[in-house]
Specification:
- The protein folds into two domains: 58 residues, no CATH class; 127 residues, no CATH class.
- Helix content is 23%, strand content 24%.
- Strand 3 and strand 4 form a beta hairpin.
Amino acid sequence: MRSSGIIIIIIVAVVLLIGFYSLSTGSGEEGYKTGLVEERVQKDKFMRTSDESPFAKDRNSFTALKYFEPDPSYRVIADLMPIEYKKVVVLPTSSGEQNSYLEYGWAEFEWGGAKNRLLILEIMSMGPTRGTLFLAFADETSAGETYGAGRYLDLKKQPGAGSLVLDFNKAYNPYCAYNDNFSCPFPPKENILKISIRAGEKTYH
């Protein structure tokens, strides 16, 4: 085969690969956004209909939760730094009580041109959530675009993992953001970020 023919085949193959990669990437991002929107629809349904909802005693007052637009760039892969000598952390709550947690590790990531880190805690209280992870944080949007007492992120334990995903698009308000009858722990001082996390749930009222 002539060298010119080989070059043409290579060019065609490269173009096809680029096209396939572009389609795959776009489909993945759009699929992520679609899934996120569906989660939000289901949460609105829960808030409106469930007896476990903070709006259960006044369903007619609920309209819809408010969110920033989905932004995949806020799905951050953070380094998970274990804490060798773990201490108990006591957090005050919105009802004046105190909740105790055990240090689990630090989630370190870069954002806004700076290094940031969040303290991940492990729930100590007896009950079905004992031993699960708890992450509460505040940022520069708190008390403005987002709830003033901070937001939460759900995380799962991954023994031995050196990293974890912080998907700020899934940051949500504690129930005391909607109903004062609930008791919600405030973020530890270590988790007050000096950056704006314009992702996830906005303030409701």
